[in-house]
Amino acid sequence: MKKYYKKMLYFVPAILFGAFMFVYGGYDDSPGAQLLGLVLVVIGVVGLIKNKKD
Length: 54
Fold this sequence. Notes:
The mean pLDDT is 88. By secondary structure, this protein is an all-alpha fold. Helices cover 91% and strands 0% of the residues. The protein has one domain (1-51). It is elongated, with a radius of gyration of 13 Å. The protein contains two helices and no strands.
């Protein structure tokens, strides 16, 4: 059970930072930053889901 929480420490900040990048990219009118933020959020969510199955 501890292994799950240890890996979660990487994915949750990735989701939060991706959301920040998405919002900031929209504020700054930068579609590249929004895309990178969206990709980071998706990677974080998929990582959490795959990690939960283990």
